[in-house]
Write a structure and sequence with these properties.
The protein has 631 residues and is an alpha/beta fold. The protein has three domains: 3-298, Carbon-nitrogen hydrolase (Nitrilase/N-carbamoyl-D-aminoacid amidohydrolase), CATH 3.60.110.10; 327-540 and 597-601, Rossmann fold; 545-596. 40% of the residues lie in helices and 20% in strands. It is built from 21 helices and 21 strands. Helix 12 (423-437) crosses helix 13 (445-467). 47% of the residues are buried.
């Protein structure tokens, strides 16, 4: 047997906090060494934080990372453990996103990322240079010191042959794993910073298992955890040996997870798998092997490792089924991700003392409050309500029912609830606007609605400025997509919590939370039709369209990039009970509102990214503000 113990370290980093990031990594490294780990796997860009975006264009931002990486190496010198961690380096005018192999107090080599994503939320091709097959260069550290191998290398330790790669390299079928496995790599380590998207964990599982099975190797994958700006990293990680699951790390928390595997098993399975052998022979006939660097003067300590015991001590019987239902998995992942997004923004900016929410008695502000409270329960479990303040700001159009619903949930969560009427200010603002219009000027109904929304936002900003609070914006993605929101009003805030959550999902999450917690405030809110209460008897679906239809239009047009005619055809299949003329009118309305609302999106606050599509112009969907739809 050739036993090795792999440790996955999920580190919550902050971009640019080099010393703090490495301190966190060192804390986990020492914990892993105490567990007898042979190879410790840290996330991508763990030294500098991810995503650094254009900060890597500053030479000082990159050079300082080497100093901290060196400190990590020196402070782990006495540990009989190999560490692989992500770092950026500057080499001959280029920047590389690398995995660094550290052992025995030294950086033994740097392996650059080859697949640089420049799609969806990623911009790595803008700033980083690609690694390549056959790359073999010497990196000269800033400030002097021995040259370090930089390129396409494997590393031979006393336990076997190690290969490393960075995040996206694993996601490409044409990635470096194939040639490295054919060149003798037995354990592949992937350092990753893969953002949370709904359903991505299942995709990662399938990917890791497929790559490990195809290439007959063991894969250890560690992901970053925590939120930076609007990106949320859910952490977790996997160890899979030749397609067989060995371990899976918990998500949404900083920490470690370990597993033992036998690399002799990988070697044996390669000899037994004739397909892999034939493919390897064909590859070797036309390719030079990836060079292997032998690491001398360093040894691991594996004598205390014992053979991994299967669940239930049986190699043939399944372990207990701990899988969650699809509903629970979707809701808990989304709620955990959004709560993490609020919490890390609050804590890492170090600018706020509490959070504030304009609580309307409607669904969106209710869900935002519940998510903020979820984070507060983790941050201050003894008194979570002390971190949150809510405000109800009625006008003549506000109903007793919405006030009662808002007051009820605030009381149940034990958060401060303050009622501040804006009705008198509403009258004054309308009079002022009429005066600006001149004699005979009258305000449009839309303007009268917007005045109310803007007054509420102004008061929230004034309160936040004085109290040092984080003002949370509460609008959802569906209504934002069609401009059913007010610039300077409910579109405003310092952080948009559910701006990338569709309205149907908002309602689904509330129903789930009602079932789970039984809050009377949720029941009272969801018992009423959704509407902004800016005019008499206002119902959102009456003014727009049914929310399921709206969300379907959004997905088909903005996500699938279908033309309006194609959207109509698809809706006919999804909602065959709806009249064709009604569907046609709704599609035309959606497209018109969507394209006319782009100018609003670019003025909205930073939002949390939770899907493959959102309306942040710098993230997943980039559209020009000035455009026409003649196409």
């Amino acid at each position: 047997m050739r036993l090795v113990k792999v440790g996955l370290a999920n580190v919550n980093t902050t971009v640019g906090a080099f010393t703090a990031n490495v301190d966190r990594a060192l804390h986990l490294a020492r914990a892993l060494a105490a567990e007898g780990v042979t190879v410790a796997v840290f996330p991508e860009q763990v030294v500098g934080g991810y995503p650094p975006e254009d900060l890597v264009q500053w030479q000082g931002f990159v050079d300082r990372q080497w100093m901290e990486l060196t400190r990590f190496a020196l402070e782990t010198a006495a540990l009989p453990m190999v560490s692989v961690l992500g770092v950026a380096v500057a080499h001959q005018g280029l920047r590389y996103n690398c995995s660094a192999v550290v052992a025995g107090g030294a950086v033994r080599g740097l392996v650059p990322k080859e697949k640089l994503p420049t799609y969806n939320i990623f911009y790595e091709g803008r700033t980083f240079a690609q690694g390549r097959a056959g790359m073999a260069e010497s990196f000269l550290p800033p400030g002097g010191g021995p040259a370090v191998p930089l390129g396409d290398f494997l590393f031979r330790f006393d336990f076997g042959v190690l290969a490393t790669e960075v995040c996206e390299d694993l996601w490409s079928a044409d990635g470096p794993l194939r040639r490295r496995a054919y060149s003798g790599a037995e354990l592949m380590v992937n350092v990753s910073a893969s953002p949370f998207r709904v359903g991505v964990d299942g995709t990662r599982r399938e990917l890791v298992a497929t790559r490990a099975g195809d290439h007959q190797c063991a894969i250890a994958y560690a992901n970053a955890v925590g939120a930076n700006d609007g990106l949320i990293f859910d952490g977790g990680g996997f160890v899979n040996q030749n397609g067989k699951w060995v371990a899976e790390a918990p998500r949404f928390r900083e920490g470690t997870h370990c597993a033992v595997l036998d690399l002799d098993r990988t070697h044996r399975l390669r000899t037994e798998n004739t397909t892999w052998r034939r493919d390897r022979e064909a590859w070797a006939a036309t390719h030079a092997p990836v060079p292997t660097l032998k690491v001398d003067g360093f040894s691991t300590r594996r004598d205390a490792l014992t053979y991994p015991v299967p669940a239930g001590k049986s190699f043939f019987l399944p372990s207990g089924d701990t899988r969650r239902s699809p509903k629970e998995a979707l809701c808990e992942d989304l709620l955990d991700a959004l709560a993490l997004g609020i919490g890390d923004y609050f804590q890492k900016t170090r600018a706020f003392s509490k959070v504030g929410i304009a609580l309307s008695g409607g669904r969106d502000s209710l869900l935002t409050l519940l998510i903020a409270h979820r984070w507060a329960c983790q941050a201050r479990p003894e008194n979570p309500g002390s971190l949150i303040e809510t405000f109800y700001m009625p006008t003549r159009y506000s109903s007793d029912g919405t006030r009662d619903a808002a007051e009820t949930i605030a009381r149940e969560l034990k958060v401060r609830f303050t009622v501040v009427s804006i009705d008198e200010a509403f009258e004054r603002e309308m009079d002022a606007a009429k005066a600006m219009l001149g004699p005979g000027g009258t305000l449009t109904p839309i303007t009268q609605q917007n005045v109310q929304a803007r007054l509420r936002a102004e008061r929230m900003w004034n309160w936040a400025n004085t109290s040092g609070a984080l003002f949370l914006q509460t609008g959802n993605m569906s209504e934002k997509a069609v401009g059913y929101t007010t610039i300077g009003g409910d579109l405003m805030g310092a952080l948009a919590v559910i701006a990338n959550v569709p309205k149907t999902v908002v309602m689904y999450l509330l129903q789930y939370l009602l079932e789970k917690h039984g809050y009377e405030g949720i029941r009272k809110v969801t018992a009423r039709p959704a509407g902004p209460e800016l005019a008499p008897n206002q119902v959102g679906e009456d003014e727009l369209m049914p929310f399921p239809v709206l969300d379907a239009c959004f997905h088909l047009y903005a996500g699938e990039k279908l033309t309006p005619g194609e959207v109509e055809q698809a809706l006919g299949a999804i909602f065959p009970e709806l009249p064709k003329e009604k569907v046609h009118a709704w599609v035309q309305k959606f497209v018109k509102l969507f394209m006319q609302s782009i100018y609003k999106w670019v003025q909205s606050p930073l939002s949390l990214h939770v899907g493959n599509l959102d309306l942040d112009r710098e993230r997943a969907l980039q559209l020009p503000v000035v455009t026409r739809t003649q196409w």
